[in-house]
Amino acid sequence: MSHATILAVFAHPDDEAFGTGGTLARYAAEGCDVYLVTATRGEAGQSVRPDLAIPASLPAVREQELRCACAAYGIHPPIFLDYLDGHLTIVPQGQAVGKLVRIVRRLRPQVLITFGPDGIYGHYDHLAVHRWATAAFDLAADPDCFPDRDACQPHQISKLYYRVLTEEMLASRAQAGQRPAVVMDGVPFPFVGYPQSAITTVLDVTPYLEAKRRGILCHATQVSPDSRYAQPLEAMAGDPWFCQETYILARSTLPHVEGIETDLLAGLR
Ligand SMILES: [Zn+2]
């Protein structure tokens, strides 16, 4: 398969950037159709650049930041589910999964990427999106699943990937003196790491670091000017934290293959 379609589903503008920016850029560069669904416009986020957005303008500014990032990765413009940041656990889940099922049946991807069951650091919105996307993987293929029965034909995605971090990556951050956690309302929620034995897929995104970095920097309200991402590219090169994007293959319709994958399209090409 030379022309695959890949769909990533995340909660907030910038979720795609730090975790999968290199992956998205790689497959776009290889000629795949790469799409990103983002559930919210990130209006509950804090801005590190008050000069760029006030609370009332933050959703519009962050939408533009995500459009900028998608252009940097070379993928299609983002698709928004139009939900409110911080409220995804109270969205009627049939409605949200129905939206994703329609998108899957329209775009007909071979690969779906989303959060793992940990949501990287347990953010409730991430956990909700993980559940929706996993349900949509199954239900998009189910002819008894409903949305617009006549308008959209069932579609079987071949592979479902969860983006997860490894214990080694987190240990290396800690050794570098950085606390691998995200502070929410003053409380540091630690990143969740998986043992190497749980990882099925490792992408070396070194050739796509510049596109990843440009995508990250598009999210200007979220990236501190003293962040390593704002430093020259050499500051990121060689560091697995930036250069490796690690996944768990959670569902696959393809025969099982031993060993670590280095390609989300392994078995599909
Ligand atoms: Zn997020």
Task: Explain the overall architecture.
It is a single chain. The protein is an alpha/beta fold. It has 8 helices and 11 strands. It has a 7-stranded mixed beta sheet with strand order 3-2-1-4-5-11-10, with helices on both faces. The protein has a two-stranded parallel sheet with strand order 6-9. α2 links the parallel β2 and β3. α1 crosses α7, α2 packs antiparallel against α7 and α3 crosses α5. The mean pLDDT is 94. Zinc ion (ZN) binds next to loops. The site of zinc ion (ZN) has 5 residues, from loops.
How would you briefly describe this protein structure?
This protein has 269 residues and is an alpha/beta fold. The protein contains 8 helices and 11 strands.
Q: Which second-level CATH architecture applies?
A: 3-Layer(aba) Sandwich
By CATH reckoning, the class would read: Alpha Beta
Cα shape? globular
- Secondary-structure-derived class: alpha/beta
Largest sheet: 7 strands, mixed
Identify the bound ligands.
Answer: zinc ion
- Total of DSSP H or I helical runs spanning 4+ residues: 8
Low-confidence stretches: none
| Secondary structure: helix percent | 25-40%
Order of helices and strands: EHEHEHEHHEEHEEEEHHE
Query: In order across it, which strands form the biggest sheet?
Result: 3-2-1-4-5-11-10
Radius of gyration: 18 Å
- The count of strands amounts to 11
